[in-house]
Design goal:
21 helices, alpha+beta, Transferase(Phosphotransferase), domain 1, about 40% helix, about 20% strand, 3 domains, 4-stranded antiparallel beta sheet, TATA-Binding Protein, about 575 residues
């Protein structure tokens, strides 16, 4: 099978997954949606013969050009996805001018991608080179982190919720810097990386009340860890001080700032050190779960994770709280449905200083958690759908449970289709109904969506992190209750654009692709079932989802290259629903 190209190098399981991630991202964002060559005489004879040999054994050849560099990557798909989540065989060759060499690990692909994007850039040469070097460094940082995480066996016991939150080793499937963390040293990773099973106590500061800006949704008081409140009782008794929780790494960062030193010296801020219950960092690294208090805290971290600094700028905090306020204005049966629940932000705290950088570096957002009774039945979708380097995707376990509950030995297409109908009822349909009726588009991508399963079947959906919510000015009936300049308010088309990406492409599209990759069912069948379910729902916007030939997708790779993490670049991809409109 490999006689027509130099002897192949069998990639490790980790490098195969990384090659898949990098190749799929590059193809999606450079307009190479289907890199499978047609049967022509355009390729050299040896390559044609190799492609024919692969096709004979059921593999699908791909040939990916890297812009003006002249290099190409040749290999084979073992699975081809309608949404672009293709599975690659564990071998590939890099070629230029007919000289083909086997790929021994994924690192050279970072050079191909960085050089190709640089060759397409229209920026000045110095800027282009800086972007190239920065992206290449972040890609290699991410690869190093992925390999490091796979060497570690997390400590036990941990709750199933924590195992899921901390179980992601590869991250976003359409991102080339998905696990980069520029700022953590080796010791920091051991202490704070969720992938390494970290848990830690938060660092608390006592801050004079006049120096702490507190904002609560509907004027709710910020919750306080009882153990910390007891420890600091003497400071809190007369109301002069209030408590500000902080990530331990960020506490050291703040204490090193020259603007903070005089506040410490004057006792306007008192560093109390690590206190309270153990906090468990979730998949986002900077958001932590406090199980005893049943609460999430979105903490600032002045390190670069993926492609931008993960602190909490004032605009983002305001957007999250305004969106949460908007949710409180809805009828109770909309906020808390029997099959879907939104976890709003409760409030925020930050140092009341004119320096926005310090405000962003100290702002903490308090978030409602899921009901304690369901914590162990809930799965974070990003973890549920991550295909490990070795072993099977966790999704398969749920499908087997669902089949067993239906008295079947193993899941078949009929079980998967029934499972999918129930899944749509607790995710896509309530999210679409919310936007159609009230104009609230939630950033319900895989990391922000959780689902409770019972006997393998989806029973309840949850959406969290209101910072990414977008509210249509034209649809939301209570705009007069929000500030006119609220960053949560968008034009209708912008909010609808974000819905189509975060909910339909990033979430539903990925889930369908993962179900297809199990080999139990065809993606096209599930897209057709989705189209039929949307039409049967009678939701006014359902037909719009089917009519549009393309859907928006966030270009994470291009945004990373151009250093536009906060102002991402968008592309268009084919809409798999479009073929089923009627």
């Amino acid at each position: 099978m490999f006689s027509h190209l130099p002897h192949p190098h069998h990639l490790s399981a980790i490098d195969r997954r990384l090659l898949e991630q990098y190749l799929n991202t590059y193809c999606r964002e450079t307009g190479c949606a289907d890199p499978r060559p047609v049967s022509t005489n355009a390729e050299p004879e040896a390559l044609q013969a190799q492609f024919a040999a692969w096709r004979d054994v059921g593999l699908m050849p791909y040939l990916v050009p890297f812009a003006e560099t002249g290099y190409q990557l040749a290999g084979a798909f073992t699975y081809f996805s309608l949404i672009g989540y293709h599975r690659v065989a564990p071998f590939a060759w890099i070629g230029r001018h007919g000289d083909w060499r086997p790929l021994k690990d994924v690192t050279p692909v970072t050079d191909l991608i960085a050089d190709a994007l640089a060759s397409m850039s229209e920026a000045p040469a110095a800027d282009t080179e800086r972007c190239r070097n920065r992206l290449q460094a972040l890609m290699r940082n991410s690869i190093g982190k992925v390999r490091h995480f796979h060497l570690h066996v997390p400590p036990l016991p941990r709750s199933s919720f924590v195992v899921a939150e901390q179980g992601m080793r590869f991250g976003h499937i359409f991102h080339v810097t998905s696990k980069a963390s520029d700022g953590f040293n080796e010791a920091d990773m051991q202490h704070y990386s969720p992938e390494l099973g970290a848990s830690f106590r938060l660092h608390y500061f006592a801050v004079t009340a006049s120096l702490l800006e507190v904002r609560g949704v509907n004027r709710k008081a910020m919750p306080i860890d009882p153990a910390v409140a007891s420890f600091a009782e003497g400071l809190l008794v007369d109301g002069e001080y209030r408590l500000l929780p902080c990530h331990p790494w960020q506490a050291n960062y703040l204490l090193g700032l020259p603007e903070i030193a005089p506040l410490i010296k004057s006792a306007a801020i008192i560093s109390l050190g690590p206190l309270g219950e153990l906090a468990w960092p979730t998949s986002s690294v900077r958001t932590v779960w406090l199980p005893a208090q049943n609460m999430f805290l979105k903490l600032p971290l002045n390190i670069r994770i993926t492609n931008f600094i993960r602190n909490n700028p004032s605009e983002q905090v305001t957007r999250a709280l305004d969106a949460s306020l908007a949710l409180t204005l809805l009828p109770p049966n909309v906020r808390e449905q029997t099959t879907f629940h939104i976890l709003p932000e409760l409030g925020s705290q930050t140092l009341k200083l004119p320096n926005e950088a310090i405000r962003a570096a100290s702002a903490v957002v308090y978030r409602q958690a899921m009901p304690e009774s369901e914590a162990e039945q809930i799965q974070v979708l990003a973890a549920l759908l991550e295909e490990p380097a070795k072993g099977e995707i966790p999704l398969l376990m749920l499908l087997r449970q669902a089949a067993a509950e239906s008295s079947q030995d193993a899941p078949d297409p009929a079980v998967v289709r029934q499972w999918w109908q129930r899944y749509l009822d607790v995710t896509l349909l309530p999210l679409l109904q919310l936007f159609s009726d009230y104009g609230i588009s939630l950033e319900a991508h895989l990391q922000n969506t959780m689902v409770a399963f019972r006997d393998g079947w989806p029973v309840h959906g949850y959406a969290r992190d209101m910072e990414g919510a977008s509210i249509s000015r034209q649809r939301f009936p209570f705009c007069d209750r929000l500030p006119v300049d609220s960053p949560a308010l968008y034009d209708d088309e912008q909010a609808w654009h974000r819905f189509r990406y975060y909910v339909l492409v990033n979430h539903i599209g990925h889930m369908i692709a993962c179900l297809g990759r199990t080999g139990l069912i065809e993606e096209a069948t599930l897209w057709q079932d989705t189209a039929r379910r949307l039409l049967d729902s009678k939701i006014p916007l359902a037909r719009q989802l089917l009519k549009q030939p393309t859907l928006p997708a966030k270009a994470n790779m291009l945004s990373s290259f151009h250093q536009q993490g906060e102002r991402p670049i968008w592309i268009q991809i084919a809409n798999p629903l479009h073929r089923f409109q009627r």
